[in-house]
Structures are given as C-alpha cells and as structure tokens.
Sequence to fold (306 residues):
Amino acid sequence: MGVDAREPVMHELIDADAPLERLVGGFGFIEGPLWLPDGHLLFTDIPGNAIIRWSEADGSHVWRQPSGHANGLGLTAGGDVVACEHDRSVIVRLDAAGGGEVLASHFGSKELNSPNDLAVAADGSILFTDPHPAGRTADWGVERPQELDFNGAFRLEPHGGAVALIAGDFAFPNGLCLSPDESILYVNDTLRVHIREFRLSSGWAVESDRVLITMGPEARMDGALIVPSDPTMDGLPDGMKCDAWGNVWCSGPGGIWVVSPAGEHLGTVEVPEFAANLAWGGLDRSDLFVTASTTLYRIRTRVPGA
Fold:
C-alpha cells in the first residue's frame, strides 16, 4: 500500500511514503466518520446497528446502540451530531442521553427513501443524499416499499425548515461535500461511477451541473448490494470530502481518489480494503481517517480538510 501519484501536485498534498495506520477493526461495515472538537472520532457500523466512538487514549467503544442503522454523520455549528438513519428514513439530531429529534422524514407527503450521507453548511442547511433501496432492506435497515419514485439529493433548510430538491435524476446518489467556499456541491452517483458538480447561487439554486470525473464502467445492483460490472475493480465512489485547497477526496477503485476542481485525477491513496468514507481530524485537521469495510485507518496529509 502507498500513494500512487499521477500528477506532481499530489506530492504537495500527501507524502509519497506516508504510512497508513490500522487503528481498529473487526466491524461489520463501517461508514460516516466524524471528528469531534473534543478529540474523538465517531463512525457508524451499519450492519452492527451502532455508532462507535474512538480516541487515541481510549480506543473504541459503542457510543449509541441501536443506532437506527445510522450511516452518514455530521456536526452542526452548535455542536450537535446529526445522522442519516436508515430504519426510519430520517435525518435526526442526536443527544448525549440517547434520544434524538427528527429533522426531516418526508419530501412533500411521501417518506424519504433512505438518507445516506450528509454535509452541514455554514448557514445551518443540511445537504443529503437519498438513494433506494439500501436502507429499505433487512440487511441495512427495515424492509419496506419505496414511496418516492426517484433517487435524489436534497437540502434541509435551516432551523427545521422545508426539504428542497436539488436534483432527482440519480441512479444511486451517495457521498457529497461542499467546496471550501460552498459555491459548489459535489455528489457522487455510485451506480454510474462518477462525481457530479453542482454550481450554486447564493440562494442555493443550481446554476450549472456537470460530471466532474468518471472512475470506471457503470455498476449494477445485486439485491441491496452495489457490485462493480468489472470484477477487477476494487472500489466505487462512496464517501467524499474536500480539502482546504478545494480538491475532492473520494473513495474509488484502489482506495481514495484525489481529484482537482478541474476534474483531473491527481492520484490515489491506496487502501487494502474497500474504502467507504473518510474525514479529516486531529489537532491540525491533517489526520485523514478512512472507514474501509471492517477497519478504521488513518494517514497524515500535508493539506488539512476544508
């Protein structure tokens, strides 16, 4: 394992010989890493129906179980943890006592499909993806029929406002992130194996929409699982974050792809397991945590997270 640099600028983002540390393993399938200001990391074990808390000093322990088969996690400006919960198809704000407040559950009169991942904007908006069918299966949530007839990306308005549609023409919307200045929303489509770029106005209207990069041939559904059509592919677009320079770091074939704002594949951080998601943390926000199938990894980068 190492860093496969395709362009010289990759060496400015991460050392070629940066070691990938295995921190803890033995989980079912982990997702949603979130660094907390108190120096802990939260992440979800979806089939284990748990949210795990990890720190250098204390190791890992269960923070919340059951979790509603939670997937993506985020942090509000006020310090609240918000989660995508599969069992009820909701965005929920969690509290330390084990309760939670549902922030979004429907689009119009119909129940959301299965919120998957989210990003919290500076104004308090929560951007989230809502694919079908993963969270509406027994393996990943609660089996039940779909109510919406499309898979979309949405914005939950601040302070418990309405749910607004950003785009509803995805095959399987999954990871998403905002550029550092929040003028661009990136959303990947796992089945189409590409990342889309939505340029936004100051009022959150979409001004333009294009495919930023395609990582390989389209994938297919096998029950609740997404399977590469090319059996040699060892990864698909899933979790995604921006660094402080505006590059997109996204799970993909071989590990974590680093993609410039122009759509150029700068290089890949190689990961030995199927990488699902990532998040920066640490005192200087230059520790990159990667949730990869059963194991949590960490690697140092030269650029911090956005």
